[in-house]
Amino acid sequence: MKILTGNDLKTGAVIWWTGVGWSLDVNESADVGEHGAAIIAREEGAQNVFAAYIIDGQKDADGVRPAHIKDRIRALGPTVRPDLTLKPSEPEAVNWVI
Amino acid sequence: MYKYDQYDQQMVDTRVAEFRDQVKRRLAGDLTEDQFRPLRLQNGLYLQLHAYMLRVAVPYGTLNSTQMTMLGDIADKYDRGYGHFTTRQNIQYNWIKLEDTPDILADLASVEMHAIQTSGNCIRNISSDQYAGAAADELIDPRPYAELLRQWSSFHPEFLTLPRKFKIAVIASETDRAAMKLHDIGIRMVRNDAGEIGARFYVGGGMGRTPMIAPVIREFVPLDQLITYSEACLRVYNRYGRRDNKYKARIKILVHELGKEEYTRQVEEEFAHLMSQGIEPPLAELERIKQYFVDPALETGLSDDLDLTDPDFRLWVERNCQEHKQAGYIIATVSLKPVGGIPGDASADQIRLMAQLAKDYSFDELRVTHAQNIVFPHVKKADLYTLWQKLDEAGLSTANLDTVGDIIACPGLDYCSLANARSIPVAQKISERFGSAEKQAEIGELKLKISGCINACGHHHAGHIGILGVDRKGVENYQLLLGGSEGADTSLGKITGPGFDEDGIVDAVEKATQVYLSNREDGERFLDTYRRIGMDPFKEAIYG
């Protein structure tokens, strides 16, 4: 699947396109198919996101997993500070990155 | 240390107001990201892997307690309770919000700090010896000259859009503690045959994807021509440095392609021209600056005795403290490399504590080292045990300076958008593998440096053992290098062979240390043994 990620303008937080808006949770990512570039142009123009780009991912029973490790780390947070990830109560979540 | 005059303060305050307006326009949609990016970068605000990152300049690594306290307060108020001290003697915050940035810069300006020229193709923060003004082995204090260079390079209109970023280091001792020869310009203060002190210029060093050791292009520049000669070096680079290829744009490539002799000839020609223009700052300005760097009120006649009956204290003194130029005083380094910790990270509480301890025990002064540690430059030996106890209570008494545990590591793929592999987890595993004091003592001096990509922010080329993280078809892979050094005996490490996964690289480091321990002769460091026996025994042990 093709998913979109970028950053929130005010906070810089990593966000993911859900099909109707932007979420902090990669698992809410929508498959944008061939429409990624058009969505980015529209959303960046509306100041809803910046530095957006299209990546490959796959969806399974556990949720959406970006194909590349860099985007998986973006999705979770720094692997060396589980307390600062989006799943601070799940230290083992860093294994998902690797 | 240097105090802002009205011009310094006005420049910084004006820049804060200007950036506040730029942020407001960006948030209102009046500026696009393409328009805004160069403006935020000029104020040290990057976009990193998880958020905006703010890099704050610490000129030549020198801070007072008020400034250090502010750095801790910013970590708490605007970030997530910690900061990361960098290999350019700066500090970075990883979780900054754009809307907060003008307030952060205003807070910094209130304590004479800023984030200007911590990014972009300009002259970056001037770095220096972290022991400057305290070291027993220095010829003169290099900080007034570093400050003069800072003032000259700040907002220099000709050098704000260089072909690429530009880094300058200034030292004044034979022992190079600033990786001086791996800078675009390295300046070492020397004495000539006539007994005069001047500046030896090394130009064209650097790490990154094409590491080079800077050659000497002028043995002696009189100190009243320091700025003029620096300007000549920059002018030739600015005119002929390559702007067509980012990867060939650093001055090291220009010096290499022209050849040292031709580059030097052009610099000398430009220098002769500039000397006729009278651009050197008046000596009175240098004298004004020097007044800020007079010694603190060090007492005389103090005893050099230390009670070392506490074995943990003794170990820390032997490992983390250096001789001070004044009897009865000592230089103490706080390692920000606890076993299994993140190199260079300190919590807001730790930052504020170090600020308070500097106020109480080090004449209000601290230094950030390029090895990502913190120095108390002027500690009375009679106070040292008390200082150590307070550091110990805060988890800041790790005794591992210059050992395998004192690892330089870039933020790597955990934080950096340029990285290809994570650096910090490798540093943590090595730190834990070699965590015991006995093991570190057995191995002795071993400088290990890790970069998460070829940009070499973790100085891997200059590690006795270097590690470079690469991306191998989406999987992290780590190359091992041996034989680098960034000291007076600067050398570049060589790759041993095929790379390893995360656990494999830790094993490879251990095998390399075993080769060293099996082969070392009396008094040899890891680097000495490597240089004597060569790469082959290491390769044989590692790849068997």
TrEMBL record, chain A:
InterPro entries: DUF2849. It holds the Pfam family DUF2849. This is DUF2849 domain-containing protein. It comes from Novosphingobium mathurense.
TrEMBL record, chain B:
Residues 52-110, 342-394 form the Nitrite/Sulfite reductase ferredoxin-like domain. Gene3D superfamilies: 3.90.480.20, Sulfite Reductase Hemoprotein, domain 1, Sulfite Reductase Hemoprotein,Domain 2. GO terms for molecular function: 4 iron, 4 sulfur cluster binding; heme binding; metal ion binding; oxidoreductase activity. InterPro entries: NIR_SIR_4Fe-4S, NiRdtase/SiRdtase_haem-b_fer, Nit/Sulf_reduc_fer-like_dom_sf, NO2/SO3_Rdtase_4Fe4S_dom, NO2/SO3_Rdtase_4Fe4S_sf. Residues 119-273, 403-542 form the Nitrite/sulphite reductase 4Fe-4S domain. Keywords: 4Fe-4S, Heme, Iron, Iron-sulfur, Metal-binding, Oxidoreductase. Pfam families: NIR_SIR, NIR_SIR_ferr. Belongs to the nitrite and sulfite reductase 4Fe-4S domain family. PANTHER family: FERREDOXIN--NITRITE REDUCTASE, CHLOROPLASTIC. This is Sulfite reductase (NADPH) hemoprotein beta-component.
